[in-house]
Structures are given as structure tokens and as C-alpha cells.
Write a structure and sequence with these properties.
The chain has 14 helices and 14 strands. By secondary structure, it is an alpha/beta fold. The protein has a 7-stranded mixed β-sheet, with helices on both faces.
């Protein structure tokens, strides 16, 4: 291929080959087996600090059994898209279960979390509307904003004063959608939800919150950021995933029944994409039951978060402003993040570096994810590995 695109690919390939040559390429690692907070990777037992299974529900017997039963009753796939032959009894049951868990009238389920944000935003907004996104919002939110063709405006991270300044300039009769992450996936901090609610009410805006990394983690019963702040029902559009705390796949939107009906009959992803397979649907539904039945998991998770974060800080690491199970270890330079990852892998810790352009320059970090299934011994071993590697690299 002799084309300008070839040069772009070759430039990437140079970096790709260099990382592999120096044994600093860690992505797409093949996991051969999972056992709680441990995994077999490249034939070695490693402690997982890269999984989104915050409550440790992967391989939960009740969830596995629900998936197996669904295969026996409804097979492994669906007969089409949700609007036509793809809606089974389980799909409707899952949507009712999500609505109940989130305190909403109704819910709609999609094939992935990414698709959920993309299609919801692009379905609800058009070229004469306005969307306001936090600068640290997930890529799926950004892509949905772009696809909607709405006026796309970004405000500084968690800066309500900046958001207000931007909203003041918009005519009152225009559709204005504010979209934020409940927990930011690269920094681990939370959106200031009570302040966002005040702003959206003041300027007659709609508020949508992505609960991907907060479902099961925040709130007394794991119901998310609204429960955490005691402002249940104040968010207009509640989005979440079924592939993090919930050990399945997919995403959901929960809200007023008329909003959900509108999305189901106008969303291209709902109308033209195959429905989730019954085993995945059944696993997701059973997961919400387990979250309610086993509250000790959330309590254990927060014990582990406190143990891990305090340990990293005592060692001298910068964990930024994390307020969740997502714990960044800020290093600055990409090369340093890669070298620290290598040393941790050598000590049996499965963790990954986050580099530019996924994050701003000079903010490279290791993103660690804490789970309820980590033992104190797992965390202590990981902290010891951080101490040893950090001293060898001159970080601490």
C-alpha cells in the first residue's frame, strides 16, 4: 500500500516494535486462567490489579448457574434485534431489575457500554442542541457527542464555575445536556454531583451520568453516586455498564418510562444491533441479586481500597485524588511508567501503564484497580513490589 496512511501505520509500527524489543509491551496479555484475584498469565500466577471486577463477582456460582440455565432454556444467541425477534423474557426481566435497583421507572439494555453512551447521546440530541462534557469524560461520551452533531462544548474537569459560565451563553429554550462520569476511569475521582444538580436545575439542563465505575462501589447499597450523595432521583439519565462490577457484557440506560420508550424506538444501536445473548442477560440479572444479598463484598472492597491507597502514599507514591476503587499511580513520563510496569510484572503483579495519547502528556501512570477478592496478603505483596521497584527506579 503506497498511500499517506502507510506512513501513519509505519510510525506506529516503529513504536510498537521498539516496545516489544525492549520487553516493555504489556497490552493484550493472554489470560489463561482466573482464580479470584489471581490469574495465570504466560504460565505464571499473578495478582490481578487491572480488573474492573470490583466486587469480585467473576466466577460467582449463582451468576454462573444463571447463565448455564439460560443456555438450556433459550440457547446461546438471540433471533435478531431487540425491536423485532431479539427480545426474550430474560431481556425484559433484566431491564425491570435494573430499573428497580436504580430506582427508575424503566431501563433499556444495549450490547456494550461504549454503544450505550454513543447511541443514547446521538439519539437524543441534534444539530441545534448543546452538549456539555467534562474534559475527562470517557471516549464513548465524546464520540456520542460528535455523532449527534450537537454543539459540543467541554468544561474544565469538575469545574462548576466554568460550566456555569458556558451555560450562561446558551438561550434558555435550547436543549442542553450535561454529561459526566460518576467516577473518572483514569483518575479515580468523583463528579461533584450535588453541585451539578444545582447547575442543571438553574439553567434548565438535562443531566446524564455514566456509572460505569461506580455501580456496586458507591452508596450504602452499591447503587451508585446518587445514593452516595443522598440525591436519589435527581439525575435525569442514568447510564451504566454490565461488564465491570457486573460480570457480563453490555450497558444500560435507566430513567423515566417515556424517555426509555423514545430511546428504544429511535436508537440505531437498539434497532439495528443484535440483542445480548441470553446467558449474558441472565448473568447480569443474577449479579444485581448478589450485590444486594452479599453487602460484605462492598465493605471488604473499601477496606482493601483504604489499605492499598494508604500503603502507596506511605511509600511516597502520588495516587492523585482517587475516591474509588480506581487508584492511579502518577509517574509523569511514559518511559518511567513502562519500566515500573516491567518490574511489577517480574514480581507477579498484573497491572498496566496508561500512556499518551490516552491521557494528557506528562501524566503517564499505572492504573490499579482494587477488588473485594484481594486478600490482605495480596495487597501487602503488591505494596512490597511497589516499594522494591520504586527504589530501584529512583521514584521513591
Amino acid at each position: 500500500m503506497n498511500h499517506p496512511l502507510r506512513k501513519r501505520i509505519e510510525k506506529f509500527q516503529e513504536r510498537f516494535d521498539d516496545l516489544k524489543k525492549r520487553n516493555l509491551y504489556f497490552y493484550q496479555a493472554e489470560i489463561e486462567e482466573i482464580n479470584g484475584a489471581h490469574a495465570i498469565v504466560q504460565g505464571r500466577d499473578m495478582i490481578i490489579f487491572a480488573s474492573y471486577s470490583y466486587l469480585g463477582l467473576i466466577d460467582h456460582p449463582k451468576i454462573n448457574e444463571a447463565a448455564k440455565k439460560a443456555i438450556d432454556e433459550l440457547s446461546t444467541g438471540t433471533h435478531g434485534v431487540r425491536l423485532l425477534a431479539g427480545t426474550t423474557r430474560l431481556h425484559n426481566e433484566l431491564e425491570r431489575r435494573i430499573a428497580e435497583f436504580k430506582g427508575r421507572e424503566a431501563a433499556a439494555v444495549f450490547s456494550s457500554g461504549y454503544v450505550t453512551n454513543l447511541t443514547t447521546i446521538s439519539t437524543l440530541l441534534g444539530k441545534d442542541d448543546y452538549i456539555f462534557c467534562d474534559k475527562y469524560d470517557h471516549a464513548s461520551i465524546v464520540d456520542g457527542a460528535i455523532q449527534s452533531r450537537a454543539n459540543f462544548i467541554r468544561f474544565d474537569h469538575n469545574d462548576m464555575e466554568h460550566l456555569e459560565d458556558l451555560l450562561k451563553e446558551i438561550p434558555e429554550d435550547k436543549v442542553k445536556l450535561i454529561v459526566v462520569d460518576a467516577v473518572y476511569s483514569m483518575d479515580g475521582d468523583m463528579a461533584p454531583l450535588p453541585d451539578l444538580i444545582k447547575v442543571k436545575e438553574k439553567y434548565n439542563a438535562i443531566l446524564m451520568v455514566d456509572e460505569a465505575h461506580s455501580l456496586g462501589v458507591l452508596g450504602e447499597h452499591g447503587r451508585g453516586i446518587e445514593e452516595h450523595f443522598g440525591v436519589e432521583g435527581k439525575v435525569d439519565i442514568d447510564m451504566g455498564t454490565l461488564s465491570k462490577t457486573i460480570p457480563s457484557v453490555g450497558g444500560y440506560i435507566a430513567g423515566d418510562r417515556d424517555l426509555i420508550d423514545y430511546i428504544k424506538h429511535n436508537s440505531r444501536a437498539y434497532i439495528f444491533s443484535a440483542a445480548l445473548p441470553p446467558p449474558a442477560v441472565a448473568a447480569a440479572k443474577a449479579s444485581f441479586d448478589v450485590i444486594e444479598e452479599e453487602p460484605w463484598r462492598r465493605e471488604k472492597l473499601w477496606e482493601n481500597i483504604d489499605h492499598f491507597v494508604s500503603g502507596l502514599k506511605k511509600l511516597g507514591y502520588d495516587t492523585m485524588n482517587t475516591q474509588s476503587a480506581v487508584v492511579p499511580v502518577l509517574l509523569g513520563e511514559d518511559e518511567l511508567a513502562l519500566k515500573l510496569t516491567r518490574k511489577l510484572w517480574d514480581e507477579g503483579i498484573l497491572i498496566f501503564p496508561i500512556l499518551t495519547p490516552a491521557i494528557p502528556p506528562k501524566t503517564a501512570r499505572l492504573r490499579s484497580c482494587v477488588m473485594a477478592s484481594h486478600s490482605h496478603e495480596d495487597i501487602d505483596k503488591t505494596l512490597n513490589a511497589f516499594e522494591k521497584a520504586g527504589k530501584e527506579l529512583g521514584i521513591i
